[in-house]
Amino acid sequence: MTTEIGITLGLLLLALILFGTERIPVDVVGIILVIGLVMTNVLTVNQGLAGFGDNVIITIGGLFVLTGGLIKTGLVDLIGRRLYKIAGNNEFVLTALIMFVAAASASVLKNTTTTAMFLPVVIGLAERARIPPSKLLMPLAFGAILGGSCTLIGTSTNLAVSGAMTRYGMDPYTMFELTPVGVIIVAVGVIYMLFIGRKMLPSRGGEDSFTEQYSIREYISELLVLPGSQLIGKTLGEANLNMELDLNVLGIIRGKEQKIAPTARERIELNDLLIVEGKLANILNIKAEAGLEIKADFMLNDEVLEGGNIELFEVMVMRDSRLVGQTLKSIRFRQNYNLTVLAINRHGETIVEKLSEARLRFGDVLLVQGKREEIEPLVVEGEMLLLEDVSKGAMRTEKRKWAIAAFGLFLVLSLTKVITGGLIDVPLAVAVLLGVLLLLATNTVRYSELYSLIDFRLLVLIACMMSFGVAMETTGTDKYLADLIVRYFEQYGSVAVLAGFFILTVGLTQPMSNQAAALVVLPVAVKTAIALGLNPRTFAVAITYAASFSFITPLEPACVLVYTPGRYKFMDFVKIGTILTIVVFIVAILLVPIFWKL
Length: 598
Description:
Layout: H1 3-21, H2 26-39, H3 45-49, H4 55-72, H5 75-87, H6 91-109, H7 111-129, H8 134-147, H9 156-165, H10 179-200, H11 210-213, E1 220-225, H12 236-239, H13 241-245, E2 248-254, E3 257-260, E4 273-277, H14 280-290, E5 292-294, H15 302-305, E6 310-317, H16 333-337, E7 340-346, E8 349-351, E9 365-371, H17 372-380, E10 384-386, H18 400-414, H19 416-419, H20 428-441, H21 456-475, H22 477-489, H23 494-508, H24 514-531, H25 536-548, H26 557-563, H27 570-595
Antiparallel strand pairs: 1-4, 1-5, 2-3, 2-4, 6-9, 6-10, 7-8, 7-9
Helix pairs in contact: 1-2, 2-21, 4-9, 4-18, 4-20, 5-6, 5-7, 6-7, 6-8, 6-10, 7-8, 7-26, 8-10, 8-26, 9-24, 9-25, 10-27, 18-20, 21-24, 22-24, 23-24, 23-25, 24-25, 25-27
């Protein structure tokens, strides 16, 4: 083993550790990896940055915009609203429809996008059909993940592998090359979920009010302002109960008048009933000196916290939100957004105490009190996802035909080589850019929001991992690892080696992103196939499928999105997802060598 191979493997090990700990964002880990390769002279500067100039980066970025056009015109929401009319209250039919529609949508919209769009719709369907959300949300995520394996543009992983394949003398994937096996895998996966997985799904959520779901009864009290209280005549801002005593005033009852979510300018009067949120110990500490009395017969329900245009909402923190890593206190959430967070649900654990000090994470669900118009900007900007049916008023439904036309233009241009028999071949990057230009020209997507639709973090990660693939090739690391695999596993047969790479890729998708896992394994698999005299394309296809099938833990972004709203536990995914992974593994290993000869 040469020094360069040792450095490359050492950096790979470091990257795996950093990916697994999640202490550093994945795109930053990719940048560290490239810097390490350049600083150790494993790669030149041009080689290290070559991934950023690859046309697959333009293609993926353009697809984010095309997908944004479909979302902003309400196409996905329209499809979801039709499901209930067809299925009614039949859980079996509803589950089947959700999975098939999610799979079909994910084949062009990507699985995370599809899950995020259908999540509030499916929660609404569950409420109308009186079915616990936990019965429908995991099938939604799994259907979307399965569907992403069906086309070239179904996931960013497919595009990244396709772009990397050209370095090894292989043609990139055609648009529908992965479709035949992908469709069969979707069908088998849906059948498993309907007849086996569905019976293992827990029955949680959907029955209780928000106050019961979040168990906040013991943290909400009603305080009577007594004669002589030092608070009389002060505004809520002057009383400063929030910052000094960690008590939130959620409402004021004054005679027959009820003020929900009062402003800081509201003055406290004698005999006011203050509805406050906070620890009982804090309330007892100020009871005597502030001249307050706890009402013993106070009964909390959702109606107490709602009134007029003040409502209770559930909102989820999105992956690229600027709120991630921040505390409610550091961003002055209540002051800046005029919204009050009553509780945080994080993977089944409800956080009520010291809310202002809890650092927000992707997937956190916040129980928020406030006005709808205050929440909508956060939803539109992609900071949060509102866990209820999306308002039609926020959709550009009149532009829907242009969004469909732009996507159709991209699909037609991407197939010109097949349609014209090779006479015309429009590069995928050019096809997607023409679609984007049509969206901009028709104002379906506004220029001001163009770049906000693109997940630059993912683009940086893919570019960095493609550069790492170059390092593995130029240093001979891929050949070194391939020789080890051939030496120890050749005796078990070619299908066994293919299965080994499939399992390795699935394993790596747990601590690292799907794209990174695929691009790490690909060069080793290709060199192994060549050394064994096998078809390297077969191995590339198997790795592509394997990188998409991340069901075992709720670490896949599509699964993170449904984890908390579905009230799932970690082991729910392990039990149901492990069996599904085994099922799709068997199907893929049987079919891939048939459609792509070994």
